[in-house]
Amino acid sequence: MKRHLPFALVLFGVISTFAALPSVPGTNEVIRYECDALYELGAGNDDFKTIPRDRGDALLSALGGGQQLEEIHYPPGMEVIPAPPRYWLNLILTNGSTNTFGIGDGFVVLPNGYYRVSDVARKQIGKVNDAFDSDARKEKETLQKQLVSEPKPLVYTVGSVVDGGTLSGIAKMFYGDANKWKMIYEANRQTIKNPDKITDGMKLTIPKLQ
Known about the structure:
The protein is α+β, with helices and mostly antiparallel strands. Helices cover 30% and strands 24% of the residues. It has 2 domains: 4-130, no CATH class; 150-206, LysM domain (Membrane-bound Lytic Murein Transglycosylase D, Chain A), CATH 3.10.350.10. It has helices at residues 7-11, 53-62, 119-149, 167-175, 181-187, and strands spanning 4-5, 14-15, 30-36, 48-50, 69-73, 79-80, 87-93, 98-103, 107-110, 113-117, 154-157, 203-206. The radius of gyration is 20 Å and the shape is elongated.
């Protein structure tokens, strides 16, 4: 019989310590690093943007060429739905290929499976994640200031920062009040056919508060 367990219960369960190290490129093999623009998986966004070289190197170095990783093995017969990573990281390599890694809290997703990261690697990755979070906060603050200072209503592209992918999330971001989503909906009726369904890339007019 198949059982469903939270990923966290399995993450630190059965780990192979004798498996071959996963293939993780060195920083000298990478031409450019790209990161999911939303810094998270699950938002349905495939828009990657280049990130600073030092951050990409820090993330890759934390994995130690695979030495800081331990493969996660699930108990036989158990069906597990893993937790999604926080974001995807693209590695554009010198040989012309692209490797895509998922960076999570305490684990990474490689092309051949899920791996637990060591405590040392987790701390190093956490520092980079904190820097990304700081960037996201600054982007939100900039947009909020533009809404106040712009002489005309601000035009906002859904998904350009972490907005939750909902009108209430966007209202919370701009107005500090999720209940004001109807203001945005009323100002964009020609664009929004269903207020429960907005998509990344949609351009919305954000009206000023009266």
